[in-house]
Write a structure and sequence with these properties.
The complex is a heterodimer of chains A (783) and B (144). A six-stranded mixed β-sheet of chain A has the order 10-14-15-13-12-11. Chain A has 24 helices and 35 strands. In chain A, strand 12 (433-438) and strand 13 form a beta hairpin. Chain B is an alpha+beta fold. Helix content of chain B is 15%, strand content 50%. In chain B, the strands form two sheets. In chain B, strands 8-1-2-10-9 form a five-stranded mixed β-sheet. Chain B is globular, with a radius of gyration of 15 Å. The A-B interface holds A 162, 165, 405, 451-454, 492-498, 500-501, 503-504, 507-509, 513-517, 527 and B 30, 32-38, 40-41, 44-46, 49-51, 53, 80, 82, 84, 136, 138.
């Protein structure tokens, strides 16, 4: 916010300076329409801006001036001298206030009112509001910010880049030359200065991504109003910093994606209710930095992409042949949204237009070296992730060589450098692909020489391995011939023909002045993944050679498909058995799903989005004492969990993601499931009992669910055999149910208590009711 | 309207390119190959702390590969903000041409047809006017 205020101050001051001439001219010729418009625009802009910042004084002043000027523009008032003076006085005051805002001084507010009154026609107060013109034109001191063109910053940046290059070369020559302590010390100083300078200039080009997100709330509001949809926008990560040029490049694609999400993704409230979703759709826009990339995610909980429909359309439009369509993976089907001229929206709307969107979005993002990922769950939403590079032209990198040529690897992706010769490393060649066991970790091994198609000049046991974790990917080991040095490299984007290989992130010059290619760790992994037989990798990662698995115990897990079609795994130990139940046995009550099984009622999870017709397949999960049911579509396989689990962001049904057979699988969190579903579903005999009077339909129909939700078992007056009730509920006037001797809660129908002694609770005072119920329940537990 | 053109020898032919497109004519020393790039990208070379993408015009014209030489004569041009060096056989001269560009009236071989913008008359000879951008784009661009 501070940045924005500064920007507002700078902008207002600039406008004031530009306006000073206009003011003088307007004073001389109040009838001059052009001047009037200019001044009107100024107060209008100020008014708009301060509404945003919560600056009430500025707002009321500019608002008043705007009103008056609007009248003059409409010809309802004449711009006489008095009015001109009053307007100028207000503009001067705006100038003072803005100045005060910057310096933190106070400006007396007493006569604001007077200035505003002076604007009104009828005001005949003292003529002391004569504009002090000098005040407005006087050059303010304490200028703390200036505006620069981005071009100039670019030139500074490239100048600094060249400086770094020159320093690198100098460093190399100094190393070759005879040691001279004095020269070296001087060089160190120069180095430090350059580094500091580079930092500062780099920062000048950085901007918080907030600037990009600021326009979203308004856009979402307008769009959803226009389309008759309800959308809740959640914005996160506005403090992530990004090169300002990059921000501009992302602006249009992001706008487009958000428009699409509201227009095509999020359904109308009625449709959402039918799908058992809250009427208001959620649109989440977030940014975060991941290594040398910025990830911008736009996720909605709308209808997602209908892959079948897309494929049909693509075939109909001749983009795909039927045979090609058959072979598409789900991910490839979803990626069809990027094909030009494909839009699944039934009607073309004015908002997103006619399918010209996503292909352009992708092209724009790819042009700046980024990627767009699509993740769609049909009926449950769509997540688009823009991965864009920081392209901060100078990055720390490691230089390596293979086949006699040097390459650079961004240091941010490097986890560890390992020598193959060490005892801690073993390479297993299995089925044509290699797996490196480094200590107790087992990772796929990719030979850089193979990826690049060059001849390695080092024997297998002379090679070095670099453990890489590309942004958003999994660790792998990259074998290279030699590892050289850490260097700071000035990275420039490479020509499109070079980028098209997908292997490089840019080009750079080594300190001897020769060009070096900067490898893109994700690109290298993707490329190697294609080159190796995917099935082989799957087999290898799922069932690693038994010889080396002794060090680590594999956890057996059951991989299954959820009702929504996601792949998830659950630890085998918590699965008691798998059963088919008829959906008739499933009841939704009090906001929870329950299933009747063998004369017991188990909480049912996994079916939040509805159950299918006919029968439902469930897991019976046990924690040793209690059981819950979990609905799913089908069992895929029993697998071993070998890979590390990437924990989920927060607690939830899924505790993390792990790799099974090279594919990401969500791992169920049994703890969370039991925690969420067991509460209030304890063994009926264990639950506290609440007695309700028989025949009171309000109690039976309206109160009962709340009581049950609070964990009580409800009995009626007539069912006295149910045992002693812990809480007895009665209407304020009625009789206490004749069961046992628990605490009596009286419920009254009127909001006001009838007297000081009236300890009854108003029937719709939910908080008081729940407090009373939980106190009683707690008492019982102690007893 | 008089225009300057650079006359050069490209894959054995004398051709012209608009001088305005040309940033400089250089002799390239050292070439860093770019593994797995398209054939017409010969590699990278450095020029005054800039990285040039070196284009093998032979490959771009689908005529095989340029002969391997120690020193390569190259024309530096810019496309889409990236500097490129086009390897040529030799650079002859800069001439002023008075005639307008004429359409190509003969039938050209595959690669040539793609890069020829027309014909111009210079010093009494008829020369092909080459589109440097098409040379840089290479054969792949046509297929797309």
């Amino acid at each position: 916010m501070d940045d924005l205020i500064q920007e507002f101050i700078a902008e207002t001051r600039e406008m004031l300076e530009a306006l000073s001439g206009e003011i003088v001219a307007w004073e001389a010729a109040p009838g001059d329409r052009a001047r009037l418009d200019e001044i009107f625009r100024f107060v209008h802009t100020v008014k708009g801006n301060c509404g945003f910042f919560d600056l009430p004084r500025l707002e009321s002043l500019s608002h008043a001036a705007e009103d008056v000027l609007a009248e003059v523009r409409a010809g309802r008032r004449a711009a006489d001298q008095k009015l001109v003076n009053a307007v100028l006085a207000v503009i001067d005051r705006i100038g003072e206030l803005v100045h005060a805002l910057e310096t933190g001084e106070a400006v007396g507010s007493e006569d604001d009112e007077q200035l505003i009154n002076a604007l009104s026609d009828a005001y005949a107060g003292p003529a002391q509001v004569e504009a002090a013109l000098g005040g407005a034109t006087e050059v303010r001191k304490n200028l703390r910010s200036i505006r620069l063109s981005v071009d100039l910053l670019d030139r500074m940046m490239s100048g600094v880049s060249d400086m770094v290059l020159a320093r690198n070369e100098l460093a190399r020559r100094l190393r070759e030359a005879e040691r001279d302590v004095a020269v070296e010390a001087a060089f160190e100083r120069v180095s430090a200065c350059i580094a500091e300078m580079r930092d500062a200039i780099t920062r000048t080009r950085m901007q918080r991504i907030e600037n990009l997100f600021l326009s979203l709330p308004r856009m979402v509001r307008d769009l959803s109003a226009e389309l008759g949809k309800q959308v809740a926008l959640e914005v996160d990560g506005g403090d992530v910093e990004l090169d300002r040029e990059m921000i501009e490049m992302i602006r249009d694609p992001l706008t487009h994606i958000v428009r699409n999400a509201i227009d095509h993704g999020i359904e109308a409230p009625a449709e959402r209710e039918k799908a058992k979703k809250p009427a208001a759709g959620i649109l989440r826009v977030s940014a975060r930095q991941s290594g040398n990339q910025i990830l911008i995610e736009v996720a909605d909980d709308g209808r997602g992409i209908d892959g079948d429909k897309l494929v049909k359309k693509a075939v109909a439009n001749g983009i795909l042949t039927a045979e090609q369509a058959e072979r598409l993976s789900p991910a490839q089907r979803n990626a069809l949204i990027f094909e030009a001229g494909l839009s699944t929206a039934r009607e073309v709307t004015a908002i997103s237009g006619r399918g010209v969107g996503m292909d352009v979005v992708r092209a724009n993002i790819e042009r700046i070296g980024g990627i767009v990922d699509v993740e769609s769950r049909l009926g449950n939403g769509l997540r688009l992730t823009l991965r864009v590079p920081l392209t901060l032209t100078i990055i720390p990198a490691l230089t390596v060589s293979v086949g006699g040529q040097n390459y650079a690897i961004p240091r941010s992706a490097i986890e560890e450098i390992v020598r193959s010769r060490g005892n801690s490393v073993r390479i297993e060649n299995l089925g044509g692909s290699a797996i490196a066991s480094i200590r107790d970790k087992r990772v796929p091994l990719i030979a850089l020489a193979d990826v690049l198609g060059v001849e390695s000049r080092a024997g297998e046991d002379e090679q070095n391995m670099i453990l890489l974790r590309p942004a958003g990917g999994d660790v792998y080991a990259l074998a290279v011939d030699t590892v050289h040095d850490h260097e700071e490299l000035v990275v420039k984007p490479a020509a499109p023909a070079v980028m098209a290989t997908g292997l490089y992130a840019g080009t750079t010059l080594a300190d001897d002045g020769s060009p070096i290619l900067l490898l893109d760790p994700s690109g290298v992994a993707a490329n190697a993944g294609v080159m190796l037989d995917q099935n082989e990798i799957d087999k290898l990662t799922a069932k690693p050679a038994s010889a080396s698995s002794a060090a680590r115990e594999d956890i057996p897990a059951l991989m299954f498909r959820t009702l929504e079609g996601a792949r998830r795994a659950v630890r085998l130990a918590v699965v008691e058995r798998i059963e088919d139940v008829s959906v008739d046995a499933i009841q939704e009550s009090a906001g929870r799903m329950r299933v009747a099984l063998d004369g017991r009622i188990l909480p049912l999870a996994g079916c939040e989005n509805g159950v299918p017709e006919g029968t439902l397949r469930i897991f019976r999960l046990t924690d040793g004492a209690s059981e819950i049911a979990y609905g799913f579509r089908e069992v895929i396989d029993i697998v071993a969990l070998t890979d590390e689990v990437q924990p989920a962001k927060g607690p939830g049904e899924v505790c993390g993601v792990t790799l099974v057979n090279g594919e990401q699988v969500e791992l169920l969190d049994p703890y969370w499931l039991f925690e969420m579903h067991l509460e209030g579903a304890a063994d009926p005999a264990e639950r506290p009992v609440c007695a309700l009077p028989a025949g009171d339909s309000w109690m039976e129909n309206i109160l009962r669910p709340i009581v049950e939700n609070a964990g009580y078992r409800v009995v009626r007056e007539g069912e006295a055999e149910a045992g002693e009730a812990d809480v007895l509920i009665a209407s304020a006037e009625g009789d206490v149910p004749q069961i046992g001797s628990g605490k009596v809660l009286r419920i009254r129908a009127r909001a006001e208590a009838s007297g000081a002694k009236d300890d009854s609770i108003y029937r719709y005072d939910r908080a008081a009711l729940l407090t009373a119920l939980s106190q009683s329940a707690a008492k019982r537990k102690k007893a | 309207m008089n225009e300057l053109h650079l006359i050069l020898r490209l894959a054995g032919e004398r051709v012209a390119i608009p001088a305005a497109d040309v940033e400089s004519v250089v002799e390239l020393e050292g070439l860093t190959p770019v593994p797995r790039s398209t054939r017409h990208v010969a590699g990278l070379s450095a020029l005054r702390s800039r990285v040039l993408t070196v284009i093998d015009c032979f490959a771009s014209l689908e005529l095989g590969r340029a002969a391997d030489r120690q020193v390569r004569e190259a024309v530096v041009v810019e496309a889409d903000g990236h500097p490129y060096a086009l390897i040529v056989d030799s650079v002859e001269d800069v001439v002023e041409t008075a005639s307008a560009v004429q359409p190509v009236r003969t039938s050209l071989g595959g690669g040539w047809r793609r890069v020829a913008k027309g014909m111009i008359e210079a010093e009494g000879d008829l020369l092909l006017l080459i589109d440097t951008q098409a040379l840089i784009a290479g054969p792949a661009a046509q297929a797309a």
